[in-house]
Design a protein that fits this description.
- With 122 residues, the chain is α/β, with parallel strands linked by helices.
- It is built from three helices and eight strands.
- Strand 4 and strand 5 form a beta hairpin.
Length: 122
């Protein structure tokens, strides 16, 4: 699906499809982290079921208000310990399928929220 919004030098997600997202002219095919002004391609996370606290450390380094976890074509919830790690740091944490995660990330970004999209594309 193609998404369009006006940009203010932000990493808006322009389009997404199974296994990929497009940010500006860059297309990513690996699990990634996206913030307003940074893209971390090849995020270490392997899958929802295999998420570890080590996978979360780069996310916490961004000091986000909210994290959107995109879990591919369908919504899949991680282990409760993952959600608890966000709760302990008072960071909002939402789990969505890829499309909903991309759309929600763009909306929160347009509201100047400190948001991180953690996208599992593989």
């Amino acid at each position: 699906m193609k998404l369009t919004l006006a940009s203010r030098n932000q990493n808006l997600i322009r389009a997404y499809a199974a296994g990929e997202v497009r940010i500006g002219d860059q297309t990513l095919h690996s699990n990634c982290l996206i913030t307003q002004d940074q893209i971390v391609a090849n995020w270490s996370a392997q899958s929802v079921d295999a998420l570890t606290s080590a996978d979360l450390q780069p996310i916490f380094g961004f000091k986000p208000e909210v994290v959107i976890l995109g879990t591919g074509e369908r919504q899949q919830f991680p282990a409760s310990a993952i959600s608890a790690a966000f709760l302990a740091r008072e960071i909002g944490f939402e789990v969505m399928d890829l499309g909903a995660a991309c759309r929600t990330f763009n909306i929160l970004l347009s509201e100047d929220r400190r948001v991180v999209a953690a996208l599992l594309l593989r």
